[in-house]
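Researcher: I'm preparing a figure for a lab meeting and need a structural model of a single chain. I don't have an experimental structure, so a prediction will have to do for now. The sequence is pasted below. Please return the structure as tokens so I can convert it later.
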Amino acid sequence: MKITNAAILAVAAVGALRLMQQRQHQQQRNEVEVARIQMDRIMHLTSHPHLAESWAPPGMNVDEYVKLLDANHQICAVSLRHKLRITRGAQLRFVAEWIMKNEVSRRYWKEFGSLRAEEATGDPDAEEFTEAMRVAYADRRAVQPVGV
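Model: Understood. Here is the structure written out token by token.
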């Protein structure tokens, strides 16, 4: 039985595709694990305000900081869904708008949105997510300012 060049190329292509899929799945597992660690830390700080106190921005009341951390927890969960390509396009815009209906989420974005934008620089997925959140914040702020 003679193996043709086409058959060899097909097997090589399938093998290469499988390696690419494995790499992508490993990257997704890494993203989930890093997000879990971050979200666990946020939950730990919200559950132990005395520990959150040392991380609060200068002049910010620890109770306020804990509330902002809780909003950040929700935003991180949606960010992970976006990174894993579960929440995209119109659905991402809908969720961002829904989050920004919450006054604490708007206070979080007012305080830390620029930091998140800086952190997202160079990561197209993070930049897209941050832009959706920025637009939702700006749109909601226009009709319902922070503190209202």
